[in-house]
Amino acid sequence: MKNKTMKNLTRNHFGFSLIETMLAAGILGVGLVLIAMVFPVGIKLTSVATERTVGAIAADEAFAKIKLWGFPRTWPTLTNQTCADYRELLNTQYAGYPGWSIKDISWSEFLYPSDDNIGQPRVYHWSALCRALDDKQVQITVFVTRKVAENIQFRSTINSGVGPLPGSLQAWPSPVVVSLKYDGTPRELKIDVLLWGDEHEFLSGGMVLLEDRTGRLYTIEQVRDSDGDGQRETLVLSQPWQWPGYELNPDAPPAAAQTNLRFWVVPPGIGSSRNPVIAVRQKVMRID
Known about the structure:
The chain is an alpha+beta fold. It is built from four helices and 13 strands.
């Protein structure tokens, strides 16, 4: 009787085996790893959603300010053949156009939020490129950007009278001109004239291009080395480049190569590879 009782006690007090413990720990570990992987994804999605919201609001504010600050009815450099930087136009006074005087707009008006008293550093900025459609309408393209570090510097464009050329550095990202060429592949453009010297490095997938002549927007899908020289010179676009006459016959590309095609793009900061653009919006506005 005593032996039988001892056997029952021993059988009822067996613990987990080493194999069972290891299996349980493994399952628990996998679960914890999966849970840990969810947090970075959630944080990234939240950040993306926030920046999309900020981009839309900042662009709307930019259009409202442009409408408030206005355009002169006739502007020598505002044509349908090229885009012009709105801030540069605001601070230019043309002889013979007495109805338009220099608008002394500070940099803070191009930041978002534009309130100087928010109590924290502002990291969002907008730029606008203008292109006349006719004597009453202007196409406005707004680039909303984010500055990732306080002391980072960005490329600047100055107007030499014959077109934008590389200039000094500035504190906020804004569009600059790059020179591209077309040699027969509809969805590909290649770097042509090196205006900055490092276009092979700062042009990358996800960047938005604005064609200077037409005002059309293109997104770069990837930049690759197509001739094996170790430099990435071919831009693969998300849609075919629309050459002159494309609307009339999109199946007949130009017979000759197209060179020195001017495009605007917002490059990353000096020493950075992160695309600063969070939103690009286009709108047609009437000239008052």
